[in-house]
């Protein structure tokens, strides 16, 4: 690892506090992904976040090799697809082949829902349950193919359920987190239970660039709103994984600032403004009728309404 800020996981291993996200807005391998990884590693990023579902693990692996950076210096996360909850070990093997590596640093259960091959969600109590899938993931740590394991899109309700039977406490819970969806209670819960929280969509998909409050703070620091958002994320000890396929923005996202306690407080409370407390992710679209990948918000344990809005 280089001298970037590192956090300690609950198993003693380290994770760089900032990584590059690999969701490109569409599924598939591309030279754009390969190039993004080469640029990111050349700039000093040492943490890559991808997923089987992004369909770009081969391009990530190619970028890693083309960069000339030693595999051992890079923290690689990939994720178990919901369709693969019943074939955990085989799914990781496939990811490893695509990435061209013998292990991942972190393997996450991408979503709590198990989906059939044709994409229908099984109900929460049907096999493979979260507990059964987690047990299979625990075995991967014993084999060394996953140095750490964790979850993603888990609410307090589902973490409580998982922790009833888990032998390994997840190292990470990766969830959407930015000032419109700060996840304050979940972050507190994770701290209490020894998990780190990784913030996905940490620059809110650039949807907050016109926000006056953030703009004012950014101007004071001669920084951009994206830099303020990432600095806030790190300032509250979350891991941030912004995606940018643009060389200048990749550089920008690496340069963080120090926010004052008062600025942190203001950003912490931004979601309390009328109409501000909501998700920015398409899978919470109102068109999906109040469910997310087949489970209702009640089953997922999220206090969300139609369109990813959090009721007051
Ligand atoms: N676990 C999950 O279920 C889950 C869900 C969503 C995301 N993720 C992970 O989290 C990563 C990040 O989340 P995300 O991609 O949803 O959102 P994000 O990182 O908040 O935003 C990405 C968008 O913002 C733009 N952007 C990045 N840096 C910028 C800057 N400095 N100034 C202006 N615009 C900027 C990017 O465009 P350019 O590329 O053109 O710069 C892109 O359109 C993903 O790539 C993925 O690895 C995980």
TrEMBL record:
<feature type="site" description="Lowers pKa of active site Tyr">
    <location>
        <position position="79"/>
    </location>
</feature>
<comment type="similarity">
    <text>Belongs to the aldo/keto reductase family.</text>
</comment>
<keyword id="KW-0560">Oxidoreductase</keyword>
<keyword id="KW-0521">NADP</keyword>
<protein>
    <recommendedName>
        <fullName>NADP-dependent oxidoreductase domain-containing protein</fullName>
    </recommendedName>
</protein>
<feature type="domain" description="NADP-dependent oxidoreductase">
    <location>
        <begin position="18"/>
        <end position="270"/>
    </location>
</feature>
<dbReference type="InterPro" id="IPR018170">
    <property type="entry name" value="Aldo/ket_reductase_CS"/>
</dbReference>
<dbReference type="InterPro" id="IPR023210">
    <property type="entry name" value="NADP_OxRdtase_dom"/>
</dbReference>
<dbReference type="InterPro" id="IPR036812">
    <property type="entry name" value="NAD(P)_OxRdtase_dom_sf"/>
</dbReference>
<feature type="active site" description="Proton donor">
    <location>
        <position position="54"/>
    </location>
</feature>
<dbReference type="GO" id="GO:0016616">
    <property type="term" value="F:oxidoreductase activity, acting on the CH-OH group of donors, NAD or NADP as acceptor"/>
</dbReference>
<feature type="binding site">
    <location>
        <position position="110"/>
    </location>
    <ligand>
        <name>substrate</name>
    </ligand>
</feature>
<dbReference type="InterPro" id="IPR020471">
    <property type="entry name" value="AKR"/>
</dbReference>
<dbReference type="Pfam" id="PF00248">
    <property type="entry name" value="Aldo_ket_red"/>
</dbReference>
């Amino acid at each position: 690892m280089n001298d970037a800020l590192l956090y300690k996981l609950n198993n003693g291993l380290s994770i760089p506090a900032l990584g590059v996200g690999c969701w490109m807005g569409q599924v598939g391998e591309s030279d754009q992904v390969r190039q993004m990884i080469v640029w990111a590693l050349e700039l000093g990023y040492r943490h890559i976040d991808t997923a089987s579902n992004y369909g770009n693990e081969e391009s990530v692996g190619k970028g890693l090799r083309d960069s000339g950076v030693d595999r051992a210096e890079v923290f690689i996360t990939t994720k178990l697809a919901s369709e693969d909850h019943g074939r955990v070990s085989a799914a990781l093997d496939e990811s490893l082949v695509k990435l061209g590596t013998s292990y991942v640093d972190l393997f996450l259960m991408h979503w709590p829902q198990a989906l059939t091959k044709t994409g229908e969600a099984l109900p929460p109590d049907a096999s493979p349950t979260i507990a059964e899938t987690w047990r299979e993931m625990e075995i991967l740590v014993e084999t060394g193919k996953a140095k750490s394991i964790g979850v993603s899109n888990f609410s307090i309700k589902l973490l409580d359920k998982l922790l009833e039977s888990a032998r390994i406490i997840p190292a990470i819970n990766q969830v959407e987190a930015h000032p419109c969806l700060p996840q304050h209670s979940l972050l507190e819960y994770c701290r209490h239970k020894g998990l780190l929280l990784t913030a996905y969509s940490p620059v809110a998909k650039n949807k907050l660039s016109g926000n006056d409050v953030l703009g004012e703070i950014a101007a004071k620091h001669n920084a951009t709103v994206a830099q303020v958002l990432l600095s806030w994320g790190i300032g509250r000890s979350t891991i941030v994984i912004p995606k940018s396929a643009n060389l200048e923005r990749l550089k920008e996202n690496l340069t963080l600032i120090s926010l004052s306690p008062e600025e942190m407080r203001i950003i912490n409370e931004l979601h309390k403004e009328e109409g501000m407390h909501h998700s920015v992710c398409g899978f919470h679209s109102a068109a999906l009728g109040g469910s997310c990948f087949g489970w209702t918000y009640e089953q997922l344990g999220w206090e969300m309404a139609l369109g990813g809005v959090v009721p007051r």
